[in-house]
Write a structure and sequence with these properties.
single chain; 697 residues; alpha/beta; Rossmann fold; Beta-Lactamase; Alpha-Beta Plaits; eight-stranded mixed barrel; five-stranded parallel beta sheet; 22 helices; 26 strands; 23% strand
């Protein structure tokens, strides 16, 4: 809470107006000026949390339609930095909310504890908000300093150990360079005529030894990028950038003290992309910083779209650099044509465009993202006599007070990458956050573990099925069984987003047992019309080591009147090697009841042949990271080829996953892979609905 404002903006999630008034009076008696609101419907609460700024949420556990878990999940999903305290009526229920990221859990009648907890959480919130304001002020100060340098008519550079580490636009223009990258790491001595090298080095050596001094001007002959020379006066000053000592250099052309770059041109060069005319990366980062600051000040939530062309590298190689730039320019024009008043579009990098939408309404933002995706999908152009068919993937990240600029960009980029790994040409929201080391943070782990427990208790999981089709293997009706979690917003959350958080054996075993039981029930129904259908089912390390797993499976198969041959179990290659004795024992037992076994992510280990020598499996699933971009990556292509050849020599069936385009499929066919799966062939669906009889792959 902002101390200067002195107002507590309180959201009460309670179905009792009397109780809500009592809580408000308790906080007022503690000295808070309360402006409160009350909600008892989750959709209304989401709208309120999205549209307004709040300092505290107090949530009762007595509502039939909205549980504290729903509220905590909603705050986490919206990315809001709002402390939430759960008020529990019965002391026996306190432990129910220990693992759901509430800031505190208090008995409803314990008003003294409530006053203490509210004061503590508001103080912590005040510190976090002050920290964000200070970070923003620092960024603004750094930005203004950089802007002054960029817009200066003086040619300014910074050197470290004689090398350029920063130059402004006037400096580039004076020496005839186009981009700062052209001089990064370049010795300044290379910009001085050979006859003046000795004089320049002696002067610079003497200046470097005299700290905290400003040098007199040195007159030398400077060299431009094209080889032309001009007489210049050079001035040196000791400086510091990000804690590193360096030297500031100002170069003045003796022939003309006026740099021939107008303020208007400097602004264009700094803020706009030359090719597309859109804001460039520098200006976009400025605008994103302002948007984050607005969110931190309670002035509204926004969203970021990270749009990347799926196949642009291939297009560039196919039609050439110049023609591909024409395609980019046309695509930028199409994106600009559908830009709304509350949106900002920029070219972030070569094939990436970013869009800031001043809205936190997920449905609206999803619609806008889909509109951008569709206009790119409908775009057809011709370049160098060849037809160009563009596709794009879009990742969405919320812009709230909880995230820094870097985290917002990283989240949107991650969502986009997840889409591309699954075939691209679609839109996805970022679902989870991880630490810089790629590990789950404590809050994220508790949040997802709570969701997993809830899903296991309340049937919050569903199964999807993705066909595995034959290219050179024997004809079979195979499906990969995939688990999904039902999200609070109705969307399905893929296993990759939550499975790593099921860190303890009990949760992972619960998921495995649920998947196997549901898959067998589904298989029984499906085999009534398609008796040849078989399922691939993943096993975790805990299930691999669970005593009695195979006996439990045998009993389950008997209850469904299924034979073990209907199932293929799989585990990742690394997990199998880490638990080698357990894996070998389970494989033998599964084979004894008719099941087959496969290694997933094959190729992750250092020695392919070792895995095959110690594990008697039937199928090898090639690591999807090799397959996803093999058409453009010769090293991945070589790895896939080696795995296919090794599998044939060992008499194993080989499966390529993550097949995302026609080129990859054609290449896999030529390399002789047995089976293939991926979004290009068929996306996962909630029923096993692939028509194997009409398969013309």
């Amino acid at each position: 809470m902002d101390r200067a404002e002195g107002i507590l903006r309180l959201m009460l999630v309670d179905d009792s107006l009397t109780d809500a008034d009592n809580i408000t009076n308790v906080l007022r008696s503690a000295g808070h000026t309360v402006r409160g609101a009350r909600q008892e419907v989750l959709a209304d609460l989401e709208l309120a949390l999205t549209e307004s700024s709040w300092d505290l949420v107090l949530c009762r556990d007595t509502l039939a339609a909205v549980s504290p878990r729903d509220v905590l999940n909603l705050i986490h999903r919206l990315g809001r930095d709002i402390p939430c305290i759960v008020l529990v009526t019965n002391a026996e229920n306190l432990a129910d909310y220990y693992h759901h990221s509430a800031q505190d859990i208090i008995l409803f009648d314990d008003t003294e504890r409530l006053k203490f907890a509210v004061a503590r959480e508001l103080q912590n919130l005040f510190i976090r908000r002050s920290s964000r304001r200070n970070e923003h002020a620092l960024r603004e100060s750094e930005k203004r300093a950089k802007l002054l340098l960029d817009s200066s008519r003086d040619a300014v550079a910074y050197m470290h150990e004689g090398m350029h580490i920063y130059v402004n636009q006037a400096y580039l223009t004076l020496f005839g360079y186009e981009e700062s990258e052209d001089v990064d790491g370049l010795p300044m001595l290379d910009m001085v005529a050979l006859d003046d090298h000795a004089k320049f080095k002696a002067f610079l050596k003497q200046f470097s030894e005299q700290k905290n001094t400003r040098s007199p001007q040195l007159s030398v002959l400077c060299m431009k990028a094209n080889g032309d020379s001009f007489p210049a006066n050079v001035e040196f000053t000791h400086a510091e950038i990000e804690g590193e000592e360096c030297i500031q250099v100002v170069v003045l052309d003796q022939n003309s003290q006026e740099v021939a770059v107008s303020d208007e041109k400097l602004l264009l060069l700094r803020d706009y992309d030359v090719l597309t005319g859109l804001f460039n990366r520098i200006r976009f980062m400025d605008e994103l910083g302002l948007t984050v600051s607005k969110a931190s000040d309670g002035k509204g939530i926004s969203s970021l779209l990270y749009l990347e062309f799926d196949n642009f590298q291939h297009i560039k190689e196919d039609v050439g650099l110049a023609a591909s730039e024409d395609v980019l320019k046309e695509a930028a024009g199409l994106l600009s044509n559908i830009l709304e008043d509350n949106e900002l579009l920029a070219r972030y990098s070569d094939q990436v465009f970013t869009i800031i939408i001043a809205s936190g309404d997920n449905d609206y933002v999803d619609e806008r993202a889909e509109a951008y995706r569709e206009i790119i999908e409908a775009f057809v152009s011709h370049a160098n006599g060849k037809m160009v068919d563009l596709r794009c993937s879009i990742g969405i990240s919320r812009i709230t007070e909880s995230f820094s600029i870097e985290v917002i960009l990283e989240n949107a980029n991650k969502a986009c990458m997840q889409v591309q790994k699954k075939g691209g040409n679609t839109v996805a929201r970022y679902q989870t956050a991880k630490t810089e080391k790629g590990e789950a943070s404590t809050d994220d782990a508790l949040f997802w573990q709570g969701n997993i427990r809830d899903a296991l208790t309340n049937n919050g999981f569903v199964l999807n099925y993705q066909p595995i089709v034959s290219l050179h293997g024997k004809e079979q009706e195979l499906y990969d069984v995939l688990v999904r979690m039902k999200g609070a917003d109705g969307q399905l959350i893929v296993a990759e987003d939550f499975i790593d958080y099921a860190a303890n054996d009990a949760l992972m075993l619960g998921i495995d047992e649920w998947v196997i039981a549901q898959a067998l029930a589904s298989l029984v129904e499906h085999r009534k019309e398609h008796p040849k259908t078989r399922f691939f089912i993943k096993l975790s390390k805990p299930m691999l080591g669970k005593n009695g797993f195979v006996d439990w499976l045998v009993a389950l198969l008997r209850s469904h009147q299924l034979d073990g041959s209907a199932l293929v179990f799989e585990i990742s290659e690394t997990a199998a090697l880490e638990n080698l004795e357990q894996a070998q024992a389970v494989i033998i037992k599964l084979r004894a009841i008719g099941c087959e076994f496969g290694l997933e992510h094959f190729g992750s280990g250092l020695d392919f042949s070792y895995s095959l020598s110690v594990l008697d499996v039937d199928y090898l699933k090639i690591n999807g990271s090799f397959v996803a971009n093999m058409a453009q990556d010769s090293e991945n292509q070589a790895a896939v080829k080696a795995i296919i050849e090794m599998s044939k020599q060992a008499g194993k069936q080989c499966i390529a996953e993550f097949v995302s385009d026609a080129n990859s499929l054609a290449l896999l066919w030529r390399l002789g892979v047995d089976y293939a799966m991926g979004f290009y062939i068929h996306k996962p669906s909630d029923t096993p609905d692939y028509n194997f009889e009409d398969d013309d792959l």
